[in-house]
Write a structure and sequence with these properties.
By secondary structure, the chain is of the alpha+beta class. Helices cover 19% and strands 34% of the residues. The protein has 2 helices and 9 strands, in the order ααβββββββββ. The chain has a 6-stranded mixed sheet, with no helix packed on it. It has a 3-stranded antiparallel sheet with strand order 3-9-8, with no helix packed on it. Strand 8 (147-154) and strand 9 form a beta hairpin. The longest helix has 20 residues, at 45-64. 11% of the residues are buried.
Length: 167
């Protein structure tokens, strides 16, 4: 039966044939990066000027203001009083010094014998160049690695006003 059916298709391998009027692709010139960037700047000069102006204003404010809160960080100048809350970190501008409140201690006399009035204590996490030091509001005059932490004011529940002084 198979012999009665005529063979309609004959399978041959595909051979490419030239196309006479196809456009040829020109090789792209590899442009240098800097002329391309300069062209983009010239084309979009208003947008570039606005963005550059915003960066200059932000930089000037960071340098000019003594206390700059950004998220959970408060960037401070040397000797400037800054208010930090529990969970915030005060970072000294232009150096690797941070100060974070660990906890507020209502009564330090529970731990050891007191020889004076009841004094609330703020327990800090004080870090200088990656090295962590123990610091409390009870020891404001003890320099720690060229720096002193002075507690100016606190409500001993939510915030403390501190100064980081370079000695």
């Amino acid at each position: 039966m198979e012999e009665d059916i005529p063979l309609v298709h004959k399978f041959e391998p595909f051979q490419q044939q030239p196309i006479e009027h196809a456009p040829k692709k020109k090789p792209k010139k590899i442009k240098s990066f800097f002329p391309w960037v300069w062209g983009q700047i010239k084309q979009h000069k208003i947008i570039v000027a606005v963005v550059l102006g915003i960066f200059v204003i932000i930089g000037a404010l960071y340098v000019a203001l003594p206390v700059v809160p950004i998220g959970s960080y408060t960037f401070v100048n040397d000797g400037t009083t800054a208010r930090i809350e529990l969970g915030q970190t005060a970072k000294l501008k232009y150096s690797n010094v941070t100060l974070k409140i660990n906890r507020f201690i209502d009564d330090a006399c529970k731990v050891k014998t007191c020889f004076g009035p009841h004094t609330p204590v703020v327990d800090y996490n004080f870090t200088v160049d990656g090295q962590t030091y123990v610091e409390t509001s009870m020891t404001p005059n003890v320099p720690v690695y060229r720096y002193q932490v002075k507690t100016v004011n606190t409500d001993n529940k939510t915030y403390a006003e501190v100064q980081i002084i370079k000695s």
